[in-house]
Structures are given as C-alpha cells and as structure tokens.
Amino acid sequence: MKPTNTGGPDYYHKVVDCQWACPAHTPVPEYIRLIAGGRYSDAYMINWHSNVFPGILGRVCDRPCEPACRRGRIDKEPVAICRLKRVAADLKDDIKEQLPKAPEKKNGKRVACVGAGPASLTVARDLALQGYEVSVFDAGKAAGGMVRTQIPKFRLPDSVLDEECGYIIDLGVDLHLNHWIDSLKKMLDEPWDAVFIGTGAPRGRDADLPGRKEAAKHIHIGIDWLANVAFGHTTSIAPRVIVLGGGNTAMDCCRSARRLGGADVKVVVRSGFDEMKASPWEKEEAMHEQIPIINMHVPKEFVHDNGKLKGVMFEIVKAEYDEKGRRKLVPTGEPDVFMECDEVLVAIGQENAFPWIEKDIGIAFDKWGLPVLNAKTFQSTLPKVFFGGDAAFGPKNIITAVAHGHEAAISIDLFCKGRNLELRVPPNFSLVSQKMGIHEWIYDNQVSEEERKKVPVKALEKTLKDIKLELELGFDPFMACSEAERCLNCDVQTVFNAKTCIECDACADICPTECITFTTNGEEEDLRTRLKAPAKNLDQALVVSDALKTGRVMVKDENICLHCGMCAERCPTGAWDMQKFFLQAAQAGMEAPRT
Amino acid sequence: MTYLAKPKLLRPDTPRNALGYTKRDYEGSISTLCAGCGHDSISAAVVQACFDLDIEPHRVAKLSGIGCSSKTPDYFLGNSHGFNTTHGRMPSVLTGAALANRDLLYMGVSGDGDSASIGIGQFAHAMRRGVNMVYLVENNGVYGLTKGQFSATADKGSKSKRGVVNNDTPIDLVTLALQLGATYVARSFSGDKEQLVPLIKGAMRHRGSALIDVISPCVTFNNHAGSTKSYDYVREHNEAINRLDVILPKDKITATYAPGELRRIVQHDGSVLHLRKLHEEYDPSDRVGAMNYLQERAALGEIVTGLIYVDSSAEDLHRYLNTVEKPLNQLDDAELCPGSAALHALNESLRGH
Predict the structure, then answer these.
(1) B254 domain-assigned
(2) At residue A559, does pLDDT exceed 90?
C-alpha cells in the first residue's frame, strides 16, 4: 500500500465516526468534552453552529451518530450522544449574548423560504447571518413544521421548539404564519432573488382496503391525526386502537393514543420486528408503555357493521428471500386473524406532494413526484428555486433536513453572488497537538469503563395521563459527566511520524486493542490479514506509514483504536503524537482559507 | 507523571486460548520503565509465549534480582507467583523454590548487572546444576538505574552516551552457559519478537536450565551511535542462525519445508522444535561446535542469534538429586516425618559396615 495521505479534511474526519455519520457533521467529541467539563453553554454553541436545533435534536434526533460510535464496536452500547446534546441544551445559561447577530446592513438580496420546518429555518439562519433578507412562509400557526405537528409533546415540549425557532426568527427573519402559498408561479412573480422550498413530505399514505371508505370515521391517517393532537383539535381516542405501520410515526401514534384514552393499543406490522423502520429505542419506549408490537401481519380488511368499525382482519405472512436477497412476504397459510378495535391509525408511510407548484414553470419532477435536483447543490431545474429537507429526496429525518438547509444556503449564497454553485468551499479544520508534558494531555485520555446511562423518566402512570408532560427527565450533571467520560475522544488523532520512529515496538506492545503492527508492506487485502489483530472491518481505514529504517512499515487499523494515547505515552522519540482534529462543515458565506 | 492502567475494554473478536484466557490476562501492571525500553518488549514476548502455550498463570513462579530488568516481572503475569530477591541472588532463591515445589514453571528474570556482575557466581551454579528454569537475561550493556555506566557485558571499544570508550573485555553469558552445561541456550533481540517468542516458548517447554540472552537496548543511556547494543547496531549486525517454531503435541503441523531446510527436535514433553536453518552448516546439538562458531562470528563483529544449543534429552537437578516426585507442600506428615524407625534405618545404611 502507498503511505496513507492523512492531510486534507477527509481522512481524520472519517476517524471521528460520529461526526462523519452526522449529516450536519456536528463536532461530537468536542462538545461532549465540554459537557464533561461543565461548559454547557459552549457545548450548546458548538451544536447550534452545526445542527441549529440542539435542544430539539437532543430529544428527537434519529441519531445516525450512535450506531456509528466507535464505543459501540468495543463496548456493549455506544455513547448516549443524543441525550448528551440535550444536557447541553437543558443546563446551559442564557446564551443569547453568544449568538451571532445578523449584520445591520443588508446585502440587498431577498430570499423566500416556503415552509417553516428545520430545512427552511436552517436556510433562513445561515442566510440571515450573511445579510440576506429572508422571509419564511408557513401554513401553520407556529414555526417548526413537521417537528411541531408530528412529534408528540411528551417527547418534545413546545417550549424547546419556541426557544430554538425563536433564536432564528430573532435574527430578523420575516416569518409569515397561517400563510398558505397556493401558487409558486405567483410567488415567482415577486422579486425574490431565490426561493427555497422546504415543505416536507406532508401526505400520509393510506391503506386502501375493503371497508376503508365505509368505516372512514374511525380510521385516521397517522400524521394528520398527530397534527390534530398537536394543535389540540383531537383530545381523545376510543379505548381499543390498532396502529398500522412500523415506523417512528407509528410509534408516536401508539404512544399518543395511550395518553388520550387508548387502554388497549397495539401496533401491527407487516414486517418482522428487526426489519421495522422505527428506531430501536422508539420501539423500546412503546413497549415500555405496555404497547404490544405484533409482526408479520398484513391488514386485509377493515371489518365494520354499517360503518361502525369492528376491527381489522390480518393475513399472517412469513419472510422469504430470493437468491438476490430480496425479501418477499408470503402467506403462511394459517387462518386469518381478526383483531377487534374501535379506531385505527394508519402510519404506513409519507409521500411528497406539491399541488401548489405549477407544472409549466420549469421545475421538473421525476416519476415519483420528487423534484429533479442537483444532489450537491439542491438546485432545481429552475435555477433560482432550491429544495431541501423531506421535500428534496423524500422523507428522511430532522438532522438530514438541517444538513440540506446548510448546503442549500451555500448554493443560494453562491447563486446570488453569481458564482459557480459547483465550486464549494471545503470544510474548516485544524489539527493541534494535545501534549502538555510527559503523560499529560489536554484531553482526559483515561478510558472510562462505565456502562451507558439510562435516561431517567417520569413515572409511567403520571405521564400516560398527560400528553403534554415530557416523559424523559434528561441526565443530571453527574450522570451527564459520567456518560460524557465514556466518549473515546476519537477526534484526538494518533499522528505518526515515520522519520523519528526507532522501531522499538513500545507502541505495538502497549496498545490495548492491538491496532498497531510493524510489518513488511503489501497490498491492502493481504495486509489486513497480517496485522496483530486482523482488520476485518473494511469500512475502517488502515494508516500505512512511509517506509521505516528496516524497510518495514507501521500499519494502524483505525477500527477499534481507543484514542487512549498510550502509544504516544510509550513512544521514546515522539514519533506518535495525539493531535486534536476539529472540523466544521462549510456554511454559507465561508471563504476558502488562503493557501 | 501518572501511569494510567491499560483500559480493560477488549475487541469483540479478542482471541482466547485453550484455557479461555485472553492475552490481556497474562499482563501485569503498567510498566514504569522508560518509554521505548527493550525490556517492555521482552515482557510482551513473555505474555505472548504464555498465552500461546496455554499456561495457567498460577502455575508460574517468576523470580528476579535487582535492576531495570528485575523490575519487569511486575509488568507481566500479574496472576503468577513472584519474588524479588536481593541483587544477584535470584538463582539461589529460585533453586530453593524449585526444589521445594517442582510443579511450578520457574522463570528467572535478570539483567546484565544482576547476572554478569554481582550475580555471576550464582548464574554459573544455576547453569551447571541444571536447575529446571528459564533464565531470561535482559541485556542492555549499561547500568540504567545508576545513569548508564558500562556493565560487564558492554563490548570492548563501545562508546558510552558521554563518549567514554569501554576498555574491559565483555562477559558473554551465552558462551559461559554453554561452557557450564546449560542445555538450552539462545540469544535474541528485544526488537524481533518473531524470533524471541518461539525461543521463550521452547525454553518453557525444556527440561533443564535454559538461558536466553536477550539484547535489549536502553533507549535512555545506550541507544546512540558508538553503542553496540542500540536498536540500529543490533539490527545491522544480527546474524540469525535459525528460526524456531515450537509445535505442541496438540498442534497440527501445517508448514512445509524444503528437504534439508528443517531440523526437528523432540523435547522430553513431546513438544517439537522446528528449526528452520538459516546457516546451512550450523548444528545446534553440537556444544563444542556452537562455542567455536560463536567465537568465530564474534571476531567478525556479528551478533549470533537464534537457538544456539539444545540438548533435548537433558536431565535436571531433581533427577540428579533423586528428589521425591511430589512437591513438598503436597506431602503429608507421615511422608515428611517417617518416624524414628526410618531414621534409624537411614543412619544404619550410612554406617560403613
């Protein structure tokens, strides 16, 4: 293998698995260290810069960072990154003074954002800070979009939403609520320099089965029902409820139903338990609230008596896989199962819908009804119109919407300045030695052996009675510190210098996970098998050094490095150093550093 | 300066040996030697050897004298028996322990000062008596604990860190051991675990006194230009005569060798030493030849490493003294004190009628 090029922003970024996995590339280990140090406001600001909604995401993020967490590969569970984010939001001081201000003098460019969800608000924040005049239009009565209408209040209280949407509105964003845009054509007639569309995936998929029309009064589309609950239009549900679907919306539906009078609520899913789309923790929480999840049942018919719903008929299936590994659900031949219920919530998916976008104004849509976009710039086929969030590529999650927002804001900024949208600024990064003295580092390199902390919750009886009562209490400072200490500091990189290495083996001997090997060079495939611990995780890179004095090379497998710094502590010549890699993804208005 | 303990987290696919132990289970406390010390590599090699041999840690006794080398038993086999003796006295304490309990595996850890200076007399007698032990010398040619004066193994003409030239003739413990009757004699280098680990394994499975002289650079006081025990110098002048693989009775032999390339030596316990010859003419069963070879090569400035001599049918001190099969702590009162009649019979047998 050629010596690994660890320059540039990408190599070390990939080692920080959590940050790499985060669509918005939040510098996770950095803010976790700040939490461990009790610097909650600073931790919040690091988050706010990258992901805009730390308090919201600290409660309801899909947390792609956690499955990626290196700790999860070596310990039972990853670091509770998401809930630590909430700690920063909960325990911070008033950070208003630390928030950047929009420039007094505007740049004369006007941008409209349609929808006031996380994608639009991110665009609004990034552009407002650059002196743009941004207007946001939303049909709802408060900002937040689907985050406000879909996510039950017992998971995300309005106060958190109000606070974090407020920080953006306070930058001078012109927010128009209860304002339904019914024609993009009309909007484009107005002098906007650019329009951003972040209207989400607002249409819930229906279950078109016999009895659906007749029993319509007792069958609700999940996301519409959740919106009605959020706005207080729906305040009760019948005692026996069946929720159809296995995604996170289904979990929100069943748990909301439990709180609105549903005594016998069950979730019935077509697929097996493990293949359900819902996050594992959301399934756990539903089961904690005494909601059974019934798998491998496909709904066949809504059984009713003159429009009065009696229950749902299910066919029992099993999964079969063809030679290509594709799954097919086939009936087992067992008799169908009838489950009694009074109401049904259908949460089997969401779709995009743009009835307000005229077909003849130059915006192309693909066969799935999604806008044709440049995947990097989020620009549509009409140059001044950009899309982001669920509206861009179909339903994803909040943090993805935020990431889209940042990219779209960069594009809009470049577009308004008449620059090439493809020439994007690379992320800002630095690599700084953490050495303070012999065996002394700026970071705490002792690896905690604590287990993952469970977030304390309020008593179930209490929270099931009040749909607005937040279930989770969040970590207290002691739990937060203990959980924060579990972070392996993957951003503190093991940086190797072949020139000063004397090949004494000290690093290879001390490494607790045997990720360092001195050996003769070879092709990657062969090299991976010859290491002290074979490098089986192909997603994780090998660092190969320049040739050493003996002609051998140093090979390090990044996969299970604990970043404990022992290699550097035992190195007699300083050939190893622990250096902190800090990266912030590019945002609108950032210029490339001069070289 | 703090020394953090090694984190206990293990890789999910951490290998386990036949006893269910991981290599980490054979480690000791964290080393407080200088960073980069060759001795730490030797500790790691001992850990690897014991792991590979499925050795039960509580069946090992590690004894040492005084010095940097003699500190190292703290850094491996944390669950084994240990004894830090006075300076240079490890061999006699070990001999006593071995006589009292022959069931343990004895590992004597010493250095060039402990064995070639203050303890040279003890060293000599352990070798010539055939004490069943692994005698590991961590040889760096300097007194590290007293700031780097030449030790008795420092080569004539080598330079100290401050530029002083050594005029004394060095003691070669390998040559001494050969002359004194050791039955397993090897030399290795701390920077070459591929060579060192099998040599330790072979020694642990050898009956009789086994000496391994390991050149172990002192990064602080003896790793400069002009030193003959630096990483660079040893790498440049290392002449490996053979490569050893230790094959246990349970192992399947998978490696294949060209005819004449391999020498198979079966030890008393059934373990097989596979020696891949690197020097065609070298015969590790010829004691006199080995001594001659060493002298010739040393005169050329080469450092001969590998398994230099082995007598696979060697006996040990217990056989010579015709001691009882059981360790003393397993004998009951009647066996230990057979009574006045037995004493009388013994006395009678000694009278010259």
Answers:
(1) yes
(2) yes
Show the beta-strand stretches assigned E in A452-513. 492-496
pLDDT in tens, A429-442: 999 999 999 899 99
Residues of B whose CB is below 8 A from A509 = 40-41, 43-44
Strand A194-197 relative to strand B242-247, pairing: unpaired
Domain boundary among A301, A329, A349: A349
pTM for the model: 0.92
Q: Work out how many domains chain A is built from and give that number.
A: 2
Q: Same domain, yes or no, for A130 and A168?
A: yes
A592 pLDDT band, cuts 50/70/90, is: low
Q: Which residues of B touch A439 (CB under 8 A)?
A: 1-4
Confidence at residue A53, expressed as pLDDT on a 0 to 100 scale: 98
Show the tokens assigned to B148.
């780097």
Strand partners, A297: A316
Nearest residue on chain A to B28, alpha-carbon basis: A510
Alpha-carbon distance values, A125 to A53, A115, A172, A384, A518 (Å): 11, 14, 9, 19, 50
Residue B188 included in any domain: yes
Domain carrying residue A343: 204-349
> According to the model, what pLDDT value does residue B3 have?
83
Cβ atoms within 10 Å, residue A440 = 12
Write the pLDDT tens digit of every residue in B80-104: 999 999 999 999 999 999 999 999 9
The helices-and-strands tally (H runs, E runs) of chain A is 22, 24
ipTM over 0.85: yes
B62 belongs to a structural domain? yes
Average pLDDT of the residues in B143-156: 95
Question: Are the C-beta atoms of B191 and B37 separated by less than 8 Å?
Answer: no
- What mean pLDDT value characterizes chain B? 93
**Cβ A137 vs Cβ A161: under 8 Å:** no
Q: Is B52 on the interface with A (CB under 8 A)?
A: no
Cβ contacts of A133-136, under 8 Å, gap ≥ 24: A133/A106, A133/A108, A133/A109, A133/A172, A133/A174, A134/A110, A134/A173, A134/A174, A135/A110, A135/A111, A135/A173, A135/A174, A135/A175, A135/A176, A136/A112, A136/A173, A136/A174, A136/A175, A136/A176
The residue ranges of DSSP E strands in B112-235, in sequence order, are 133-139, 142-143, 149-150, 184-189, 209-215
A301 beta partners: A313
Whether residue A24 contacts residue A399, with contact meaning beta carbons closer than 8 Å, is answered with yes
What span, in angstroms and rounded, lies between the C-alpha atoms of B269 and A81?
55
What phi and psi, each to the nearest 5 degrees, are found at residue A441? -130, 155
Q: Which residue of A has its CA nearest to B45?
A: A509
- Pairwise CA distance, residues B111 & B66, whole Å: 8
Cα atoms in the 13 Å half-sphere on the side-chain side of A182:
1
Q: What is the DSSP string of B200-247?
A: HHHHHT-SSEEEEEEE---TTTS-STT-SSSHHHHHHHEEE-EEEEEE
Out of A333, A349, A365, a domain closes at A349
- What span, in angstroms and rounded, lies between the C-alpha atoms of A304 and A308? 5
Report pLDDT for B257. Answer: 62
Of A440, A447, A506, the CB nearest to B9: A447
pLDDT over 90 at B15, yes or no: yes
Residue B12 domain-assigned (yes or no) = no
Burial of A366 (0-12, 13-18, 19+ CB in 10 A): exposed
* Confidence (pLDDT) at B250: 76
Judge whether A18 lies within some domain.
Answer: no
B251 touches chain A (CB under 8 A): no
Same domain? A296 vs A219: yes
CB A103, CB A131: distance < 8 Å: yes
% of chain A at pLDDT higher than 70: 99
Domain span at residue B138 reads 23-320
CB contact under 8 A, A572 and B35: yes
In whole angstroms, give the CA distance from residue B318 to residue B315.
8
